[in-house]
Amino acid sequence: xxxxxxxxxxxxxxxxxxxxxxxxxxxxxxxxxxxxxxxxxxxxxxxxxxxxxxxxxxxxxxxxxxxxxxxxxxxxxxxxxxxxxxxxxxxxxxxxxxxxxxxxxxxxxxxxxxxxxxxxxxxxxxxxxxxxxxxxxxxxxxxxxxxxxxxxxxxxxxxxxxxxxxxxxxxxxxxxxxx
Length: 179
What we know:
Elements: E1 2-8, H1 28-43, E2 50-53, H2 57-70, E3 77-79, H3 88-96, E4 104-109, H4 113-122, E5 134-139, E6 155-160, H5 166-169
Helix pairs in contact: 1-2
């Protein structure tokens, strides 16, 4: 099995209007949400082998908080310039290049890219993927390359956000009982 954990960056600050979008930092609620979501991912034993972030300050900060909680080496986190306003093909390129020894890959990025990615990987429509939300998708494959053509669809095993229910994010989605 291979797993992709898709996470939207935590809440960013709008206190610095002079900053470009890519440079906005997390606000205090974002820092708290990144920590609580990271702790939940740890509790569920879903810690990724590799974390790939958009280059935006808020995604890198979200990743840094989580990686620190999980005691992962900094070599396990990387920045992919293509994931700021990334397209599906950019994510698939990262998936294909993932070390075959890694079984759990995490992306930290932005909307609406992440909702589109989840939908493409699972055929489940996400109506709203709020800040600090995460979605784990399970794939019945042994190699990341098996996912390269987008034909194999995964199953969402977890979908959680700090202030939204699963029903609000994906109406009608039934999650497996996997805790």
